Amino acid sequence: MLTKRGQTGSDISFASSLLILPLACGWFMGRLLAFGIWLVALGTLAFFAVSQTRSGWWFPEAISTHSGALDGQMKLTLTIVGIAFLLAQLALGYVVWRFRARGAERAHYSEGNTKVEIICAAVTAVVFIGLAITGQRVWIGLHLNQAPAEAVQVEVNAQQFLWYFRYPGADGRFGSTSPKLYNEADTSSGARPGPLGIDAKDPAGKDDVVSQLLVIPAGRPINLTLRAKDVTHDFYVPALRLKQDAVPGLKINLHFTANKEGRYEIACAELCGQLHHQMRAYLEVKAPADYEKWLQDRAPKQ
Amino acid sequence: MTEQVHIAHAPTSFIRKYIFSTDHKVIGLQYFFLALVAALTGMVMSLLIRLRLAWPTEQWPLLEQIFPEGFKGGLMQPEFYLALVTMHGTMMVFMVLTTAPQSGFGNYFLPIQIGARDMAFPVLNALSFWITLLSFLVLTASLFVAGGSSLGGWTFYPTLSAIPSTGPGQGLGADLWIISIALFCIASLLGALNFLTTTLNMRAQGMSLMRMPLTCWGWFTTAMIALLAFPVLLAGGILLLLDRNLGTSFFNPGGLSVSGTLIPGGGGSPLLWQHLFWFFGHPEVYIAILPGMGATSHILSNFARKPVFGYRAMVVAMFAIGLLGFFVWGHHMFISGMNPRVAIAFSVLTLVIGVPSAIKTFNWLGTLWGARIRFTSPMLFAIGFVSLFVAGGVTGLVLGQTALDVVFHDTHFVTGHFHLIMGVAAIFGIFAATYYWFPKMFGRMMNEPLGKLHFWLTFIGVYAIFVPFHILGIAGHPRRYADSTGYEFLRALDPLHVFITVAAFATAAAQIVFLFNFFWSLWKGKQASDNPWEATTLEWTIATPPPHDNFGAHEPIVQHGPYEYAVPGAAKDYTMQTEP
Q1: B335 vs A85: CB contact, 8 Å cut-off?
Q2: Beta bridge partners of A223
Q3: CA of B359 vs chain A CAs: smallest distance (Å)
Q4: Tens of pLDDT along B438-497?
Q5: In chain A, helix, strand, coil percent, each to 5?
Q6: CATH 3.40.50.2300 fits B26-253+266-540, yes or no
Q7: For residue range B474-485, what is the model confidence (pLDDT) as tens digits?
Q8: Mutating which of B90, B389, B444, B447 best tests the A interface, going by the most A Cβ atoms within 10 A?
Q9: pTM higher than 0.90 for the full model?
Q10: Are residues A57 and A31 in the same domain?
Q11: DSSP result, B9-33
Q12: Does B371 contact A95 at a Cβ distance shorter than 8 Å?
């Protein structure tokens, strides 16, 4: 039914009215809107469902020891959130369907219901805070526990628009560096001072290995130290389920264990300038013996 | 209220009446039209962004004619892409989402809805607008300076933003961005003071706080947030300007080297900016959405022909959101290098803020329960607001969790989330308000069939655009990438980018329906009566369009709450606030 007022009867609407006349009708509009909302909601969920079946449209392969728990929490959260989304949209469609205007009939006069209000709020609070608390488990494992002492140390150096990875060598200690020594021209793995400005006078730095490829052993804990030379970057490895800013002036630690050999992409996930989208590197997870050999081959000749 | 009311004489000259006016209604319209221009500009920018993402290697000779630098050789340059991303974000967040719902509609209708003749400080009000306009012009000017606009993103993180040599656009373009935002902060601060004073001091007789329409509560809460949030951004902006131009080092930790050149200075922290920015930035989300929540509650009640379900709970929820909004900024910084213990506190508080948001959703559904809904254009957009608010809100429960944010931070999952909730949900609030108040503001009705057509195309369009963004994010696609062709793990997503771009162009085209309807109705729309929606609040008790001093010689005396629809025993199904 047409609402009494508020509809325009003007001339240009004539053509458009022919086209959309049914839309102006309350009975039709209520049903259409309900269907529209339901369709959009189901379409959204269907989109998510279909994406899971397509290669490259869902979570990348997971290769770190924490990724199982993380993906579990993710699945739980997405399910709860999906249900909440669906219920709310179904309810919205339902009230729109059911409670359209009917002639001069009046709406039900009600200013609310405190009991319903409190129950809804309490249920929501329990679910939301429950999620917030269970969501901390993986985080605590990643960030509040120290890396084990035997962890492989790698220093990640970010700069516009590339990555350098430094290994401490046989002595297990990184040589000191200085911005004054940066030499961007010489990028060989044994270069001193090289792009990282390794102080040639510091004996700890003599056996440091610098690489543009991040190679790590599978099954051993890795402890990264993130640094940035110029602007904030972000060390992001989708397959590891890891993302951490590298901030100028800070040394940020990040530890994990990868358990599947292979070659994976490293991306920059913090806007760092013109060629941000090209700041890519590779992570290679090798069998421990292959990793040791790779490192040996690159050790600077003494 | 018994003393003689001073009735201001309406200005007669064109300039005093429409340009340098101190009438809150004219200023409200000035803000509204500024936001409209900014929205169209921001939308065109988003379309250019989409072009590059869908077809990154395509040549656009025609666009090269318009942007010779940005489309050098016909190909969109990455720095131009990032400048567009920065400008789109800044334009939309500040000049549209902060300007239209609060400064536009708030200015026009807050005084009328509480029974005042104007804002508390009319000259200050005009000043706020003119500073905002200046801010808009400075921002736009940055597109045309050497190097173009900044590529730093709307969050403008140092040290990228603190050092001019970090990229094209980081010179004068970045300075202009900061100056523009600083001006905007000042204008918003003055505006907020005005809103607060007006709400507290200028209410008509009988208009107790708990008789105010929820729109007024939305504007009032927003003004409180703005008053506390904008000064922090202003301070941050000034510090950044000092770092860039006077050699201070608030954000520069020292030892920096950009492209092989050492940068002097040291002792600062890039994280300091992030704290200052997000202390503003998170509440800003609520600045954008709270007026929309107010308008939605108001319009739902009007066309449901039913009181708002749980008015008091709505007010409390709005306040809770506003207050909690100041304690969650750290959830933007989980992976920033901030102390991971602090992250846990921010995470829990973030999910707690979901509770008042959910209460609002329950109450909107409760308002519609047992209603007699009239499906007008404003009502459709208000219902669309609820749908989009839910769609964008639920993913907040994902992103608010520390560990899950590790996966999703700075991916398109975030882009999808915030576009749904603070982007299009807020825009739906603006559309609902526009269709709703157009008759009061301009004395004519907007065309209903066209309004409905606009609703349907936009409602389906925005879902089609932003749902796939979540899939991009799930697959790991980072934000702010000028193209993703360099990554193997992103190649499968190319068809999604094309789909989003097509949906974006279609949805943008649908806005022509709105623009046509708006301007056509301005001149040719059906004459509106004083109360075409059979509504209850004070703006519908006065003439259409309202006279200069709103209420003429008679101060309104308020007798009822704002949403007395379907009162049993009453003669009509709506009881206006001034009815005895």
Answers
A1: no
A2: A153, A255
A3: 6
A4: 999 999 999 999 999 999 999 999 999 999 999 999 999 999 999 999 999 999 999 999
A5: 40, 20, 40
A6: no
A7: 999 999 999 999
A8: B447
A9: yes
A10: yes
A11: PPP-SHIIIIIS---HHHHHHHHHH
A12: yes
